[in-house]
Amino acid sequence: MSLRQMEYFLAVVEESSFTRAAEVLYVTQPALSHQVKALERSLGGELLERMPRGVRLTAMGRAFLPHAQLAVRSARLAERAARAAAGANGGELHVATLHALAVGLLPGVVARWRALHPGVGLVLREYASTDALEEQLERGAADLAVGPEPEDWSGPVLPAGREEIVLVAAFDDPLAGRAAVRLAELADRDWIRCAMEPRVEGEPFLDRVCGRAGFTPRSVLHTEHTSTAVRMAAAGIGIVAAPAHLVRGAIGEDCVLLPVDPPWHRSLAVFSRQPLTGAARSFATLLADPT
């Protein structure tokens, strides 16, 4: 069983056709079929059911699929990591992160990193939740992740500062100009909620902190992205909790930031499956000191 055979098998599964997979891989169909059959012989059974129009996975194929995907991803990651570590032209660093961090925190870091490693490409993969971020990194979707410090991670974890969570409101909000607000003062206000809102011990962050302040937030709008929620807050629809760097760095021209008293912070980290070297280590170092 070879890596090439697994790549051929995955292409057939993705295209649902030997013919289309051969075209994608730039090989002849007989050569592709030969390699997949050789893989099946080495495993002792059929992975694919050949049908008049396409193919589908057998039970054995379904069991084999996720492991083949991980093996192929890991091989590609190994090649990219080696080239990126050497600063070689053609090397790529794949970074997974949350949408809010990609918009607010990373642009300046990426610009400085590119100046240090002009021959290494960068691919940014954005996720909506910390659970998805950690799951995809574990599956090999990226070389490293930037996000809230994970609670239980077996690989390297390096500190990357911390982010402040603030309240965002329209520029003409009655609270504009305040140095800080106490959460209890907002019990009768409308709130905008975001699907990317972090969860603490299984509970949405805002529900948790407002509950401790003695009230349930009155949610009037739900959005998918934090940046959308901030724009809605700027329009006066309600108040939203968001990372301060997202608002200051990208979309906060016509809204106000209201720090909370006591302040809200969460620790950020760079974490990976393997020790960070070369360009990847450089990226983590810049995040630890983004100024």
Task: Please characterize this protein's 3D structure.
This protein is an alpha/beta fold and about 290 residues long. Helices cover about 45% and strands about 25% of the residues. The chain contains 11 helices and 13 strands. Strands 3, 4, 5, 6, 11, 12 and 13 form a 7-stranded mixed sheet that branches. It has a two-stranded antiparallel ribbon with strand order 1-2. It has a two-stranded parallel ribbon with strand order 7-10. Strand 8 and strand 9 form a beta hairpin. Helix 1 packs across helix 4. The protein is elongated and about 70 Å long. The N and C termini lie far apart (about 50 Å). The model has no long low-confidence stretch (mean pLDDT about 85).
Distance between the termini: 49 Å
Question: Secondary-structure element sequence?
Answer: HHHEEHEHHEHEEEEEHEHEHEEH
Largest sheet: 7 strands, mixed
Q: Rg, please?
A: 24 Å
The coarse overall form would be elongated
Helicity range: 40-55%
Instruction: Write down how many β-strands occur, each being a DSSP E stretch of 2 or more residues.
Output: 13
Assess the beta-strand content as a share of residues. 15-25%
Number of helices: 11
By secondary-structure content and strand pairing, the structural class works out as: alpha/beta
- Overall mean pLDDT stands at 85
State the low-pLDDT regions, or none.
none
